[in-house]
Design brief:
alpha/beta; 44% helix; 12% strand
């Protein structure tokens, strides 16, 4: 397996999204059929590891998925967790803040949906929207942006110090691949529900969003919650890489197999 550390954002080094090819496919080896079979195997392994996490009932895992429109956040969730029991995985999608949410601090709605003990929680977009959209739209200045970076780092440190392992993935697609996916949503009637005119407005600010990502990723990639940039022009590669990152993370947690209850030894069910 390729080294996942190659795709981890190092806050101590200069970072550029352009240095990572969104069309790269280092984790997608073999034929299409072999890749699909591998993804199914990884999904089963993930289910087994999630069962152990649930049985341990001590820690939890948070997967943060960020990326431009059409980068594949929904598809990643669908395929990577295709074999995992819905009892052990929850998903929360972050839309534009409601009036109730805007009346509170920007992290309030995030803290409300952190994972419970023994659970995997997936955030489809996240608190990082609050250092992307407001920055691109000019709603907050550089000083406020830097304060939010620090607040986010502190928030994530709180989570990790109280038993949450955080995996953060930026799904990195090219502008041309996004064009193809948006056009497919327009041209195919059964996909039009996925399309919003706002997607075109955001696309016009592609460069601004790329620059915002280039600043936030190293500023918020920490030892306790590092960022990984996932080349995502290939959907299968994206899924394979995220699945392997999660499995590596869960195995690294060294979750113990539950100890049998001695009271059950010799018990026969009649």
């Amino acid at each position: 397996m390729p080294d996942l550390r190659r795709f981890r954002v190092d806050p101590d080094r200069a970072f550029s999204l352009a240095s990572i090819d969104p069309g790269a496919k280092p984790f997608a080896e073999g034929s299409k059929e072999e890749q699909i079979a591998l993804l199914d195997t990884l999904a089963q392994q993930l289910d087994e590891l999630q069962n152990l996490l649930h049985a341990e009932n001590r820690r939890k895992l948070l997967l943060v998925l960020q990326g431009m429109d059409t980068s594949g956040k929904d598809g990643t969730i669908r395929w990577v967790f295709s074999r995992t029991s819905p009892l052990g995985v929850r998903v929360s999608a972050f839309k534009a803040p409601s009036e109730d949410e805007r009346a509170r601090d920007y992290l309030w709605r995030c803290h409300a949906v952190v994972p419970r003990t023994g659970e995997i929680m997936v955030w489809n977009r996240s608190h990082y929207e609050d250092v992307l959209v407001p920055v691109v739209e000019g709603w907050i200045d550089q000083d406020e942006t830097q304060r939010r970076y620090a607040q986010i780092n502190d928030f994530e440190r709180l989570l990790t110090e109280t038993g949450t392992v955080i995996v953060k993935c930026m799904l990195h697609i090219s502008k041309d691949e996004q064009r193809k996916r948006l056009q497919a949503r327009i041209d195919e009637p059964d996909k039009q529900w996925k399309f919003a005119l706002g997607d075109i407005d955001a696309r016009r600010k592609w460069g601004d969003y790329q620059r915002a990502y280039e600043k936030l990723l190293p500023a918020t990639s920490t030892a306790h919650a590092p960022w990984h940039v996932i080349p995502a022009d290939s959907k299968r590669h994206r899924n394979l890489m995220v699945a392997q990152l999660l499995i590596q993370t869960l195995k690294g947690m060294k979750i113990a197999t539950p100890v049998g209850d001695p009271k059950l030894k010799g018990l026969k069910v009649e």
